[in-house]
Amino acid sequence: MTLTLPLLLTLLRVAVIPLVLALFYLDWTYARQLATVLYTAAGITDWLDGYLARRWNQESKFGAFLDPVADKLLVAVCLVMLLRDDPGGILAVIVAIIIGREITISALREWMAALGQRTSVAVSWIGKWKTGFQMTAIGMMIWQVPVFGMPIYDIGYGLLLIAAALTLWSMFVYLRAAWPIMLGRK
């Protein structure tokens, strides 16, 4: 395995997770804002590593495996820390929807790949929108403090509600695509 820049970016995304977590709980005035900056940088590398790997023809099996794992770990850890910080009923449902969907779709993709049907559950535009809303919302909620009087946390919470709706929609789209195969009709 060759350590390419795209693979290094993915590895850095995994490495930043404990730093974001530690900063989130650190009792320092700007710790959450620094956690948000690191989280945002990790989110940008989610797009950048794949783009560079394709552009420079540096795609690898390990990178293809690690990239979605890094994304899901980052999102799950951040959602759990936000929920621990604000253990409300609605937020708990949202976190359960998002993490539950990620587990379900990951298992579905693995199963479909084993059947040679992975393209039946390829990433759709709904999934891309879901990811955009989700990543933005989580970053705003980590930041927490108002900016120029704008309630950043509340806006992020609203965006996370939209992300949860898109999460359910995208899960149903993937399950509907796989349903004939699950029933043995394809």
Please work out how many helical segments DSSP would assign.
Answer: 6
Largest sheet: none
Overall strand count: 0
Total separate domains: 2
Shape: globular
Integer-rounded radius of gyration: 17 Å
Parts with pLDDT < 50 across at least 5 consecutive residues: none
Distance between the amino and carboxyl termini: 37 Å
Share of helical residues: over 70%
List the helices and strands in order: HHHHHH
What percentage of amino acids are in beta strands? under 5%
Structural class: mainly alpha
Mean pLDDT: 91
Folded structure, characterized:
The protein is mainly α and 186 residues long. It has two domains: 74 residues; 101 residues. Helix 1 packs parallel to helix 3, helix 3 runs antiparallel to helix 4 and helix 5 runs antiparallel to helix 6. The longest helix has 31 residues. It is globular, with a radius of gyration of 17 Å. The N and C termini lie far apart (37 Å). Belongs to the CDP-alcohol phosphatidyltransferase class-I family. This is CDP-diacylglycerol--glycerol-3-phosphate 3-phosphatidyltransferase. Its EC number is 2.7.8.5. GO terms for molecular function: CDP-diacylglycerol-glycerol-3-phosphate 3-phosphatidyltransferase activity. It is an enzyme of class 2 (transferase).
